[in-house]
Design goal:
The chain is of the alpha/beta class and 242 residues long. It has a single domain, classed as Aldolase class I (TIM Barrel, Alpha-Beta Barrel), CATH 3.20.20.70. The chain is 35% helix and 15% strand. It has an eight-stranded parallel β-sheet. Strand 4, helix 4 and strand 5 form a beta-alpha-beta unit. Helix 1 runs parallel beside helix 2, helix 1 runs parallel beside helix 8 and helix 3 packs parallel to helix 4. The longest helix has 13 residues.
Length: 242
């Protein structure tokens, strides 16, 4: 599986190609799916362009994307979008339109409660385990571990020279990951080396404007679809035509 990460916490300062409105996110996601992405991860935005867990923003974003594609759609629950853990849970309980899944960063305060709130509502949990944090150890001890949809092994090492080594260390820390599927990905300079490693190991991965703005040769990417098409080649899978 190659997931497209449509925008992340990026904003207008990262360039006009980063989709910010629900319509732009839906168009970008649909083009990425057309060339081979089989899952979507997106960050709904407030009117001022900040990540938000607002029910209105989540509903508008998920509905816009679902109007164009028929693949699973997931959102973030990152603490930067709602720093207070209790408020984060209340936001999730107030959602009127539910995504298929949502990522929960296990090193963040309140992760267990956020995961529980999502599972209570029937939303799949992507357990985000960041390298350089205690996320792997906390996840290993979590009663929710066996119930998550998948583990996002997130390599925060942005160096092209060392990201693969950091990825292997993170996978070692994860161990059996409660037997759940693992999606391995990197970011910025580490995005492409880690994606290629995921392909060699037979693990799911992701690529998109959240993780990198550039192609493997360093040229600025023109779209999420271009990143996914190149990602499929680097991963070892043919892209779809169209």
């Amino acid at each position: 599986m190659v997931q497209v990460c449509v925008n992340g916490a990026r904003g207008a300062g990262d360039g006009a190609l980063v989709p910010m409105s629900p319509g732009a996110m839906a168009d970008s996601a649909a083009r990425a799916v057309a060339v081979g992405a089989s899952d979507i991860h997106v960050h709904p935005k407030s009117p001022c362009g900040q990540d938000t867990l607002s029910g209105k923003a989540v509903a508008a974003t998920v509905e816009a994307i679902r109007s164009q594609v028929r693949v699973p759609v997931g959102v973030t629950t990152g603490a930067w979008a709602e720093p207070d853990p209790h408020a984060r849970v209340e936001r999730i309980r107030a959602w009127t339109v539910l995504p298929d899944h949502a990522s929960v960063n296990w090193h963040e305060p309140g992760a267990e409660d956020v995961a529980a709130a999502l599972l209570e509502r029937g939303v799949g949990v992507e357990a985000g385990i960041w390298s350089g944090t205690d996320g792997a150890a906390r996840f290993a001890a979590s009663p929710w571990g066996p119930r998550v949809l998948r583990v996002l092994a997130e390599v925060t090492d942005q160096s092209a020279e060392t990201a693969e080594e950091s990825a292997r260390a993170l996978l070692t820390d994860l161990g059996t990951a409660h037997g759940r599927p693992v999606l391995l990905h990197g970011e910025e300079g580490g995005a492409w080396p880690v994606l290629r490693l995921a392909g060699r190991l037979g693990l799911a991965t992701r690529i998109g404007l959240e993780d990198t703005l550039v192609l493997p040769d360093g040229q600025r990417a023109l779209s999420n679809a271009q990143l996914v098409a190149e990602g499929l080649l680097q991963y070892g899978r043919p892209r779809r035509s169209g």
